[in-house]
Amino acid sequence: MSGDRCLPQHHIQDDPTFPHPLVVCPKTKPCGYREAMSLGNKYVRLNVGGMLFFTPLQVLTRQNSLLKAMFSGKKEVFTDKEGWILIDRSGKHFNSILNYLREGTVTLPKGRQAVQELLAEAKYYRIQGLVELCQNTLQDNKEQPMCVIPVITSCKEEEQLIQSSSKPVVKLLYNRSNNKYSYTSNSDDNLLKNIELFDRLSLSFNSRVLFFKDVIGDEICCWSFYGQGRKLAEVCCTSIVYATEKKQTK
BTB domain: from which residue to which, for each copy (predicted)? Predict the structure, then answer.
């Protein structure tokens, strides 16, 4: 990183490895932004959400932004007792902000959430070019669903899907609108638990097993297992009773 550095508080000193000489305020007389400018200080000390940065003034004022307004005297700045200029934002992506101001471009962080976080910071600092870069990246790289679960609506469609699959098949039938049965007090809870279990399994094993849902059968909740094009097992799971024969619990 050229020209800026995140430094631990109370340990600022001249650093011979730094590419430019650091201008350090004496500990006995902390200097704020205006004093530093009067001394010809070309570096600015920033405390961004608890993270400390040294960066050249020319970087902060290079592009039209909130930072340029702050460090060209158009907007009031606040310093702590040690002379660090306070910015009440997260410092997590501030290096990316500085790099963009310096170079006019930046390598965006990995992951959609991280880019969204950087976008929020770019909007706060009013850096339009970085805002557009983040927005275009998010638009071009929309996350794809982890897996797609077919929903069967006809017996013919179900048969074709099972016969054409080279993988084992798991089918979950759920049909809460079926009024052939009377529901117990726990029926809906049991149905939701089965749906949640099916969703977890499909996310974990979709590369090895074909999962699909059926909403046309006579049962309320039923798991079916297929291999080599034929049904191997079936389990019905919802707690219901037959409306005509109350003693039989399914």
Answer: 42-110
pLDDT for the residue numbered 64: 92
Q: Which two tokens stand for residue 10?
A: 């109370």
- pLDDT on residue 129: 94
Beta bridge partners of 102: none
Q: What DSSP letter does each residue of the chain carry, written as one string?
A: --S-EE--TT-----TTSSS------TTS---HHHHHHTT--EEEEEETTEEEEEEHHHHTSSSSHHHHHHTTSS---B-TTSPEEE-S--TTHHHHHHHHHHS--PPPSSHHHHHHHHHHHHHTT-HHHHHHHHHHHHHTPPPPS----EE-SHHHHHHHHHH-SS-EEEEEE-TT--SEEE-TTHHHHHHHHHHHHHHHHHHHTTTSEEEEE-SSSSSEEEEEEETTEEEEEEE---EEESS-TT-B-
Q: pLDDT digits over 31-85, tens only? A: 444 544 443 458 889 999 999 999 999 999 989 999 998 888 777 788 888 889 9
